[in-house]
Amino acid sequence: MGIFSDTIEEQSELIGQLEEIRLAKNPHVIILKTKQCPLCEECFANEKQILQHILKNHRDHKQFVKVNNVIVNSHEFFESIDSLDIIVADSSSCKITVIVDGKNIPVSSDNKTNEYCSIDLREHIDIRDKKQILIQFTYPSKTNEIFIYQNKMPKIDSRTIFSKIDEIQARLIRNEPVDWNALQLYIRSNNFNELEQRYLNGFYEYFYAYTLTGRDSDKHYESAYSLLCPFAAPKTTAATVVKFVCMKFNWIGRLRNMIENEADTIFYHVGMFLSQPEYKLPSGMKYSSPTDGLLIEDQEEAFIRTVFDYFSGKNEDVEGFTEKYLCRNQQSVFRDQNFIDRAYLIKARKERYLICGVRKEIQYLYDQISSPYYKAESEAFKNG
Known about the structure:
This protein has a domain at 80-150: Immunoglobulins (Immunoglobulin-like). It is 43% helix and 16% strand. It has helices spanning 47-57, 159-173, 180-188, 194-210, 214-228, 237-248, 252-259, 266-275, 298-311, 315-331, 337-354, 359-367, 375-383; strands spanning 2-4, 9-10, 35-36, 43-44, 63-67, 70-71, 75-78, 84-89, 95-100, 103-105, 111-112, 116-120, 132-138, 143-150, 285-286, 294-296. A five-stranded antiparallel sheet has the order 6-5-8-12-11, with no helix packed on it. Strand 11 (111-112) and strand 12 form a beta hairpin.
């Protein structure tokens, strides 16, 4: 197990004056004309292709709502709402109801077929000063609801809640069993309000995911992400969870959005590494093993540490990481493909930038990466 704190040791007055070396433009790589799937970040030429992709590969999302161009879950908080789009696949069997601050708002779509409809709520109501928006998707056999709140980011300030989270983590660190059913009962029966329950459930999902493997683990990490997003203010443990999940699943676009103004955090430099091939760590910064923080998986802590080894030019340490974890994950029954992709990425970068390896071998490493986010880098190298 690893303890992770999203802070970085500062040894220079140049902290914050970051040098970003951007990837050189390549005429064969067209980025501005592509759109990303908001669920997995695979790139497509237009919204219709994204919809077809979601229907085929994300079957649990036959209807979804995008706020500020981000797909939301059952309860989401936004300080301000600039856009709100409702999209339904198989719209012939779904009735859409929109209730804004208790008032039913009739909605219709100019972009509607038997396969899907798309509704821009701004065409029906001025949403800028609204507090609560409820969207109901009613099918013959069920109704799904999404609540969207427009207000300041909620804050949790409860010693009882923080102590419970610390207690769960401490038990996991000591390899002591956690009674997950009792924890759920505790959350429901201690007079916590709705936000406090959501916050605790987010950490419940995160720690429970930590104890699992494979797809079972993934779905609980995703749930933790959804539950804790509204509480992810800068420099909070909730934010560390959200950024960790973004890194774990290679949601690099989301990670970049979160770290934009956090140049003194570890995840800033990890995110920059993952998104900019030629990014360099500013002078005077290094990764130090924290004594407190968030419990994360061993292999993910090892990856973060290896990113900083890469920045420091420690070829042997980077090679040791990739040899160890690529072998372990490739042979595992529960292959973590997202982790494998990042391991191949850092190995390709080492060969490319640190030791100027053989071009054919570097391309082979890039070709092993399946995550759509890194395809542009692979294509740029191939065509460069």
